[in-house]
Amino acid sequence: MTEFRESFFGYHGFEELKRHMKQGYDFCKEVASIIQERADLELSYGKSLTKLSQRASKQTNFCVGSLCSAWTSVSSRIESEGKLHSELGQSLKEEIYKQMKIANEEQSKSKKEIEACVEKSAKILHEKKQEHMKAKKNSHTKVKEAELLNDQCEKYQSGGKKTKTISDKDMTKLQSKSQKAEESSNKAGQDYIDITMHAERARHDFEKNMRQYATQMQSLEEMKLTNLQEMLNKYNSLMAKIGPQLTETCTVMGTTISRMDVQSDIKAVTAEKGTGSVVSGQMLMDCYEEDLNNNMKPNRRRTSIQNKIQTIGQKIDQEIKGKEGLQRLTGVYSDNPQYTSNVGMDDTVLQIRQADSMVDTLSACQYKLQCTLASMDRKAKPEHKLSMYITTQKDKAGLQQSVLNIPITGGGGAVVGGAGGGDMSRPPADGAYYDDDFDPDFPTEVICRCKALYAFEPTQKDELLMNEGDVINVHEKQGDGWWLGELNGITGIFPESYVQEI
């Protein structure tokens, strides 16, 4: 059986279903108004015919014979027709108009509370998305500050020829400030993870309320259509009594009304109004360290990414354990149906789906970080079943914005759901990431020059050895974060993030 909750998703689905229900309310209200006007016309017409029959009856006093009998028959016909229309008008008002008005008002009251609940959860979801953006910006800012202070400490500690010396006291203060900035960066990163999870839970709450709203709206829609069918049948029955001349019209009308099918109309609503297949739209973390264009020392970038991967892995384990507990609870409910209702069972199943969804979110975040490690090692990205559903683009502020768009099936579940942590391990560093078909025919044209910010030690035959401060002639800027250049007569590739164009 077609259901609204399988066809209306997200806030757009809520607005579309709400609009349809409002249109249904307006339709019933207008139909009731039309029936009322028709009833008033019949009552007025019946009253006028009754008065006319009284005038006609008085005229029998002024005729005799067959003429008197004929006119008396006409007068009686007018009186009977007036009574028929008066009874029709009264029946239309009492049996149809008033009943439709009561049913419409009851439906309007029934849907207000659940609509308010969905709107509230939608507002919370919007607020959580805003918090997610703020947490992302704060995390990036804190990492930048920590990196800057760390660079200053290392600069003064190295004591180069051009480096200004500072006192031990100032150095201690700088190191303390750097340590605090590092702690603040770690806290901001943890807050970012937590807010990402809060935003996902807010989405879960909205989807749960939306499912309840769609179910209740379907019940109201079925009731409305059933009531309309009953009222139209009553209307047809009343109209069929006013005379043989309406019999043919009423028969055709009755045949049409008898063909009404509530479930068929529900299916038509979902086909014409439903928002159709959607994607999950799960918000992912975009850490400062992920973007290799962001200035950060490789060893610190690697350590920070590895720490985040470990933290997220712990979160995944927690979610999986929670899901396993829910699955055990479902088994208890299945073996002992008296312990819960159908609603309780459905809620538990929904929580399992949401746990799967949270695992997908965290697994995708972990996978993105692992891809960054692979890029730093110039290795192929690891394979994962969620990779095809991750999209990344730049927002207005120039920050990466990644979303996990898993297609939603009719049952509300994802095509790829319940990753359960999946095989998110990084492939072994055995050279599988590297391209053995290296082309020695380098471009010879110098397109620009750059200065090495950090020393780079090659790990492959096609990579270029460089020390901090070296000036390299650049031949090609490759699209994978690596540049091709020449230093001291040797040509090779080197990471873009290690140099600055001059």
Protein described:
- With 502 residues, the chain is of the alpha+beta class.
- It contains seven helices and eight strands, in the order H-H-H-H-H-E-H-H-E-E-E-E-E-E-E.
- A five-stranded antiparallel beta sheet has the order 7-6-5-4-8, with no helix packed on it.
- Helix 2 packs antiparallel against helix 3 (168-239).
What best-fitting shape do the alpha-carbon axes yield?
Answer: elongated
Q: What average pLDDT do the residues reach?
A: 84
What is the string of helix and strand elements?
A: HHHHHEHHEEEEEEE
Strands across the major sheet, in which order? 7-6-5-4-8
Please give the number of β-strands: 8
Unreliable runs: 410-440
User: In this structure, how is the largest beta sheet organized?
Assistant: 5 strands, antiparallel
Discrete helix count? 7
Helix content: 55-70%
What structural category do the secondary elements indicate? alpha+beta
First-residue to last-residue Cα separation: 67 Å
Summarize, please.
With 502 residues, the protein is an alpha+beta fold. 62% of the residues lie in helices and 8% in strands.
Structure characteristics:
elongated; 7 helices; 8 strands; alpha+beta; five-stranded antiparallel β-sheet; 502 residues
Note the topology.
Elements: H1 10-58, H2 65-158, H3 168-239, H4 247-258, H5 262-273, E1 282-283, H6 298-335, H7 342-376, E2 390-394, E3 400-404, E4 448-452, E5 471-477, E6 482-487, E7 490-495, E8 499-501
